């Protein structure tokens, strides 16, 4: 009995540890005093009205960037993933390894590398894409494409091959089979890959730090540059808005496919 | 959340994909033609060649150029950057600190992940899905926002120091932020869900009857853990350790946020050299060494997991 109680206490402590910073962000966003004095002595909601346009614009910029990077990843990664999962062709193992290898490369390394490419391109062409939205997209899709490819490959292994055979047997052509049988079955996997792609782009700091312009930062860059000198409750307020939005998405995912499934299909990198 | 979901020990996506794909294609109805294969792969390959392979090649070439002034690299090729890196104890210190950070984060994560992993693998409580949700949902919430929440907690006047001072554990506030300790706390928090998931999957595969038999033979909870759960979940532990270690030594965001730009590890030092120091060759060299280290650990992880299956 004591063993069971000890186990439960330990589990509760770890779960508390996991939730603590999220709770702190939300509580601190209602603080009526300095953020660093925690817990706050008194509470107010005024910081939500005081969130600066800079923060809203950065949040919007990050959302658009993550959406574009996710869409590109789904469009480019889905056919590649299906082909790598089912085809038999020369060089498949090498191509597969190449497509998934960005998942093992530290984001900071990708950031330095993309930045140095932009420097070389500037020397060659006289124009630079560093600092532009297009440059950020180029940097971020190296991050997002492999998530979709991997989720599709993993999802494809759980497909019921007999359904495709049945469709072919009933006279469906390869494209009809793909559209009516394969893709709908892969839907949850593509969704998982897309969610991870979006999250990876949305939370990225290093690539945006190197490729983004100083006057149009993404939300993580904005947070990073604010936190050292100007940590205020308004920063906690915009972060709370993001936490709330994230949980709304997570809740919908939980209802539609199950968050555990999404994580299992997409985990392994950060 | 369904319990029937198949889960692979993490860390071996490529291996799993390949092996399973062989089986899947045997069962599916015929191979697509060579042209269809090429067309389906081409967009991904072309894009990744430009946004991934080419940048790495350029970075590699920067690491082989002499430094010739701020934001410049001189003509000609040289190994001097690597020579300087490996000949200077300062750089060895940064590498050692980075690896030490990985080892500490792995050790703490493994210890605190076992209780929730065991509980979630065994419980039949109707709260299970909520608890799993609490464990894994942080993974999909921006890591920089999770870091942010630690700052008011760990500061000099923060809750943790208030409690420590209140309990008389220390006579003055502890420095828990903007230093190595802060980075460890932030990384354990960011990465422990991976360890919990990895262990949970491994423990789920251990038959409950083994533990029941051990109990019947008089084993207490601690002995059951030492003699059954720990040895039989070793593959999950290993997978979790390798993932957490690789992600720890790769980490930039959490190190920068929790270390307050004062903790110099490989990732933060490379960033500093390129962005502030404008020393492109040295920055590229550090990034290349970091890339080689993470590749080494990722590939050994793949190999280990393949052998164990």
Automatic annotation (TrEMBL), chain A:
<feature type="transmembrane region" description="Helical">
    <location>
        <begin position="94"/>
        <end position="117"/>
    </location>
</feature>
<dbReference type="GO" id="GO:0055085">
    <property type="term" value="P:transmembrane transport"/>
</dbReference>
<keyword id="KW-1133">Transmembrane helix</keyword>
<keyword id="KW-1003">Cell membrane</keyword>
<feature type="transmembrane region" description="Helical">
    <location>
        <begin position="61"/>
        <end position="82"/>
    </location>
</feature>
<dbReference type="InterPro" id="IPR035906">
    <property type="entry name" value="MetI-like_sf"/>
</dbReference>
<feature type="transmembrane region" description="Helical">
    <location>
        <begin position="231"/>
        <end position="253"/>
    </location>
</feature>
<keyword id="KW-0813">Transport</keyword>
<feature type="domain" description="ABC transmembrane type-1">
    <location>
        <begin position="59"/>
        <end position="253"/>
    </location>
</feature>
<keyword id="KW-0812">Transmembrane</keyword>
<dbReference type="Pfam" id="PF00528">
    <property type="entry name" value="BPD_transp_1"/>
</dbReference>
<feature type="transmembrane region" description="Helical">
    <location>
        <begin position="189"/>
        <end position="211"/>
    </location>
</feature>
<dbReference type="InterPro" id="IPR000515">
    <property type="entry name" value="MetI-like"/>
</dbReference>
<dbReference type="GO" id="GO:0005886">
    <property type="term" value="C:plasma membrane"/>
</dbReference>
<keyword id="KW-0472">Membrane</keyword>
<comment type="similarity">
    <text>Belongs to the binding-protein-dependent transport system permease family.</text>
</comment>
<feature type="transmembrane region" description="Helical">
    <location>
        <begin position="129"/>
        <end position="149"/>
    </location>
</feature>
<protein>
    <submittedName>
        <fullName>ABC transporter permease</fullName>
    </submittedName>
</protein>
<keyword id="KW-0997">Cell inner membrane</keyword>
From TrEMBL, chain B:
<keyword id="KW-1133">Transmembrane helix</keyword>
<feature type="transmembrane region" description="Helical">
    <location>
        <begin position="183"/>
        <end position="203"/>
    </location>
</feature>
<keyword id="KW-1003">Cell membrane</keyword>
<feature type="region of interest" description="Disordered">
    <location>
        <begin position="1"/>
        <end position="30"/>
    </location>
</feature>
<dbReference type="Pfam" id="PF00528">
    <property type="entry name" value="BPD_transp_1"/>
</dbReference>
<feature type="transmembrane region" description="Helical">
    <location>
        <begin position="127"/>
        <end position="146"/>
    </location>
</feature>
<keyword id="KW-0813">Transport</keyword>
<dbReference type="GO" id="GO:0005886">
    <property type="term" value="C:plasma membrane"/>
</dbReference>
<keyword id="KW-0812">Transmembrane</keyword>
<dbReference type="GO" id="GO:0055085">
    <property type="term" value="P:transmembrane transport"/>
</dbReference>
<keyword id="KW-0472">Membrane</keyword>
<protein>
    <submittedName>
        <fullName>ABC transporter permease</fullName>
    </submittedName>
</protein>
<feature type="transmembrane region" description="Helical">
    <location>
        <begin position="280"/>
        <end position="305"/>
    </location>
</feature>
<dbReference type="InterPro" id="IPR000515">
    <property type="entry name" value="MetI-like"/>
</dbReference>
<feature type="transmembrane region" description="Helical">
    <location>
        <begin position="89"/>
        <end position="115"/>
    </location>
</feature>
<feature type="transmembrane region" description="Helical">
    <location>
        <begin position="236"/>
        <end position="260"/>
    </location>
</feature>
<feature type="transmembrane region" description="Helical">
    <location>
        <begin position="35"/>
        <end position="58"/>
    </location>
</feature>
<dbReference type="InterPro" id="IPR035906">
    <property type="entry name" value="MetI-like_sf"/>
</dbReference>
<comment type="similarity">
    <text>Belongs to the binding-protein-dependent transport system permease family. CysTW subfamily.</text>
</comment>
<feature type="domain" description="ABC transmembrane type-1">
    <location>
        <begin position="95"/>
        <end position="301"/>
    </location>
</feature>
């Amino acid at each position: 009995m004591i063993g069971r109680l000890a186990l439960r206490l330990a589990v509760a402590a770890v779960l508390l540890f996991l939730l603590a910073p999220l709770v702190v962000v939300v509580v601190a966003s209602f603080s009526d005093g300095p953020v660093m004095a925690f817990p706050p002595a008194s509470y107010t909601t005024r910081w939500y009205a005081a969130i600066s346009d800079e923060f809203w614009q950065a949040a919007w910029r990050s959302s658009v960037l993550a959406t574009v990077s996710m869409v590109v990843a789904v469009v480019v990664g889905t056919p590649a993933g299906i082909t790598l999962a089912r085809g038999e062709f020369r060089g498949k193992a090498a191509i597969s390894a190449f497509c998934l290898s960005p998942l093992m490369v530290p984001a900071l390394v990708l950031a330095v590398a993309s930045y140095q490419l932009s420097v070389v391109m500037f020397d060659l062409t006289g124009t630079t894409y560093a600092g532009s939205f297009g440059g950020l997209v180029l940097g971020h899709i190296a991050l997002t494409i492999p998530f979709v490819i991997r989720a599709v490959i993993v999802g494809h292994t759980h497909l019921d091959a007999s359904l495709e055979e049945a469709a072919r047997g009933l006279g469906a052509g390869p494209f009809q089979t793909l559209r009516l049988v394969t893709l709908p079955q892969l839907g949850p996997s593509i969704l998982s890959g897309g969610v991870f792609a979006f999250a990876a782009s949305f939370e990225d700091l290093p690539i945006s730090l190197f490729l983004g312009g100083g006057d149009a930062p993404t939300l993580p860059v904005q947070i990073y540059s604010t936190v050292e000198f100007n940590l205020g409750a308004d920063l906690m307020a915009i972060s709370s808005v993001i936490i709330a939005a994230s949980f709304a998405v997570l809740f919908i995912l939980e209802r539609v496919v199950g968050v555990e499934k999404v994580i299992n299909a997409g985990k392994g990198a950060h | 959340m369904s319990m029937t979901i198949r889960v692979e020990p993490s860390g071996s996506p490529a291996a799993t994909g390949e092996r399973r794909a062989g089986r899947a294609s045997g069962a599916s109805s015929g191979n697509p033609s060579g042209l269809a294969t090429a067309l389906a792969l081409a967009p991904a390959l072309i894009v990744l060649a430009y946004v991934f392979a080419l940048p790495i090649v350029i970075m590699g070439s920067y690491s082989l150029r002499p430094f010739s002034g701020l934001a410049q690299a001189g003509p000609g090729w040289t190994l001097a950057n690597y020579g300087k890196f490996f000949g200077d104890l300062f750089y060895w210190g940064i590498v050692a600190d980075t690896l030490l950070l990985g080892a500490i984060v792995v050790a703490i994560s493994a210890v605190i992940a076992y209780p929730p992993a065991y509980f979630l693998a065994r419980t039949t409580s109707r709260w299970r899905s909520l608890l799993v949700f609490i464990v894994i949902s942080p993974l999909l919430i921006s890591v920089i926002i999770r870091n942010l929440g630690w700052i008011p907690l760990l500061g000099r006047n923060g809750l943790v120091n208030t409690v420590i001072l209140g309990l008389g554990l220390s006579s003055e506030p502890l420095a828990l932020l903007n230093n190595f300790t802060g980075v460890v706390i932030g990384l354990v928090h960011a990465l422990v869900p991976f360890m919990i998931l990895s262990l949970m999957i491994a423990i789920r595969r251990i038959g409950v009857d083994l533990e029941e038999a051990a109990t019947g033979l008089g084993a207490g909870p601690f002995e059951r853990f030492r003699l059954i759960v720990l040895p039989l979940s070793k593959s999950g532990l290993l997978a979790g350790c390798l993932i957490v270690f690789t992600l720890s030594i790769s980490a930039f965001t959490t190190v920068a946020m929790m270390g307050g730009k004062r903790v110099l590890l490989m990732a933060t030092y490379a960033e500093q050299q390129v962005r502030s120091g404008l020393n492109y060759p040295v920055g590229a060299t550090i990034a290349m060494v970091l890339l080689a280290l993470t590749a080494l650990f990722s590939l050994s992880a793949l190999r280990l997991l393949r052998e164990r299956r």
